[in-house]
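DM from R.C. (forwarded with permission)

"hey, sorry to bug you on a friday — could you get me a structure for this? deadline for the figure draft is monday and I only need the backbone to look sensible"
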Amino acid sequence: MPRPLLSTVAVLALTAGLGACASSRLEGQPRNRGLGPQAALDMSVPAMPSAPITSAPLAPPPGAAAAVDAPPPVGADVAVAPATPVIAPEPSVASVAPPAPPPVVVASGRSSVVGNWTAKDATGASCRVSLSSAPALDLYKASAAACPNKDLSKVTAWDYRDGEVYLYQPGGTVTARLRQGGGALDGALSKSGASLAMVR
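My reply, with the result:
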């Protein structure tokens, strides 16, 4: 046999032998020839059922303050405060009457009679009587000047009780009782009962 033909026959025999070995070695393997390793893996794992995909922001880590504008995480329990009704202010009324002026108070009482007076008795004689706010034991100091009436000239104290002015002599004797009326004091001398008026 010529030499070139011999080498061709040897190559064919070797090729046929290698092919048979490869074929017998792969017979126990699954028939995934021609597929890549990922395709072979996909075929051996059952497919997972697909579900809709949703997204939500993550909750802040513990101890961190949540952003003011961030919505609460999906599924979180959110306490909702009850809605407070908004009450609109009442419109101002232009026809509201102005407040009434304070009532005019006519001065009365002890402080309203303190000061200098002109005393006139029933005979028409007059003199000056001064009623002071200075205390004298449980009364107040008083004085009389140039009074023709002897009892009135002895006045040294006075008091105001139940709307009346009492004029006293030393020792507590009541000289006169006068009631306040308008801007004057009208009454009578205690001993004689003669009328007595005191004006400013």
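R.C.: lifesaver. The helical segments are 3-25, 37-44, 110-113, 150-153.
me: no worries. The chain has a mean pLDDT of 75.
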